[in-house]
Amino acid sequence: MLNLFGFIRCEDMVDVRRLKMLQMVQLFKCEEDAAQAVEWLSELLDALLKTHIRLGDDAQETKVLLEKHRKFVDVAQSTYDYGRQLLQATVVLCQSLRCTSRSSGDTLPRLNRVWKQFTIASEERVHRLEMAIAFHSNAEKILQDCPEEPEAINDEEQFDEIEAVGKSLLDRLTVPVVYPDGTEQYFGSPSDMASTAEHIRDRMKLVNLKRQQLRHPEMVTTES
């Protein structure tokens, strides 16, 4: 009888050790996957800053870019949430195993830091796209109105608003993204910035030409 109890106790110990081994494997896997989530999020941030640069050639295209950006943010949000869930799992496993995680102590701050940087850069991207939509929409309204009805667009305030938004957008392109630690990042390269700015200036010149034509309609008659 005693031997039977001893055998059962021995089996219980084996089961406990097997469970602990399984939990250790799960812990290592969670730690590795959490670190991978940080890398994925870092790659998304890098892509945002280096490739999500264009502001669109017109209002419709800019609206499409804004919608694409929101879907891109959803992917980043899912990646961040996935990393958080893995790190929460490592805490539970460590408590069960009565051990200290090898990496979750520094992985969580890294995850939160990269996510904060991503959200700041994303908000700046959204702000620029929304400004570009306002600029293009107002410019297109001016440029596409029928010349037979100049009184419909003969409002100096409309032209002033387009010019103000255009200048603000140009200024915005030169402003870096500033993170909480004081580091700075720019969207794209100087040549990317110059290309985007050139298109905005070209649209502003067309609007200014339209203004001059409305002020001096005889110019159009003379040229024709």
Automatic annotation (TrEMBL):
GO terms for molecular function: phosphatidylinositol-3,4-bisphosphate binding; phosphatidylinositol-3,5-bisphosphate binding; phosphatidylinositol-3-phosphate binding; phosphatidylinositol-4,5-bisphosphate binding; phosphatidylinositol-4-phosphate binding; phosphatidylinositol-5-phosphate binding. It comes from the Eukaryota. This is SEC14 and spectrin domain containing 1. The gene is SESTD1.
